[in-house]
């Protein structure tokens, strides 16, 4: 039987990982009949195109299932949006989701994290440490498509680092310096730490278990690379965002990172 949660993993010989856990848009037919939201409404709160940006020559984990079915960036009891306050005020379900489906989704959440722990532990066993790039995006035009972006409170890149052990500060600083040494569309990049987001449950879980052996950089791109209301991608910007990550990864790989 096909599991209710779909993701793909590509393993290479590297201590580095890249995640795109909110890129997914798929909803299982067994669940779709109960969902009230249409595809456009769901797409607006998902992180489309982040997987294409995160296709880097390192270990990859990309989620295909929509966060509106199961959000693995939240703890198990909050991973299915049962109340509007869990989902930006949206009513996700037409009726009460059957308990059998809900329990299956919670079980998929457990299995995902068991497998993730195995991947991270294997990386530590082989390389002594890990560094994870956790790629996300966020909306900055909440009122309307024409709303001007308030750049004072919405950086181009919000870097979530809050839950990392201070011993990895030099890796975080190396990432920030590499980004600041580059440009996006010919302009300096506004990257700030923990302004909009500090890092979700995925980062918290990994760091709670393995934080002495590695760090997670939760990279939230402002959705300048698409129309966040219609979903229309701006392909040249997406490519620049990917190139930015590629260049920054090369700089990180030059740092003498250790896991002691």
From TrEMBL:
It comes from the Bacteria. Pfam families: FGase. This is N-formylglutamate amidohydrolase.
């Amino acid at each position: 039987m096909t599991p209710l949660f779909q993701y793909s993993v590509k393993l290479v010989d590297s201590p580095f990982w890249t995640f795109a856990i909110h890129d997914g848009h798929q909803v299982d037919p067994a669940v779709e009949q109960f969902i009230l939201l249409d595809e456009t409404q769901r797409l607006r709160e998902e992180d489309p195109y982040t997987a294409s940006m995160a296709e880097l020559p390192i270990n990859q984990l990309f989620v295909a299932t929509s966060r509106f079915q199961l959000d693995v960036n939240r703890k198990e009891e909050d991973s299915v949006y049962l109340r509007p306050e869990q989902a930006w005020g949206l009513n996700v379900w037409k009726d009460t989701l059957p308990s059998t489906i809900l329990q299956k989704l919670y079980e998929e959440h457990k299995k995902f994290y068991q497998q993730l722990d195995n991947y991270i532990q294997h990386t530590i066993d082989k390389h002594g440490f890990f560094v994870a790039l956790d790629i996300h995006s966020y909306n900055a035009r909440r009122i309307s498509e024409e709303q001007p972006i308030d750049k004072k409170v919405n950086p181009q890149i919000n870097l979530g680092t809050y839950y990392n052990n201070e011993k990895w500060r030099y890796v975080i600083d190396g990432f920030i310096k590499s980004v600041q040494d580059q440009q996006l569309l010919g302009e300096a990049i506004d990257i700030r730490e923990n302004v909009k987001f500090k890092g979700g449950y995925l980062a918290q879980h990994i760091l709670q278990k393995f934080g002495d052996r590695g760090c997670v950089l939760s990279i939230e791109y402002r959705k300048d690379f698409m129309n966040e209301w219609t979903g229309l991608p701006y392909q040249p910007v997406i490519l620049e965002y990917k190139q930015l990550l590629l260049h920054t990864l090369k700089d990180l790989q030059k740092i003498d990172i250790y896991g002691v």
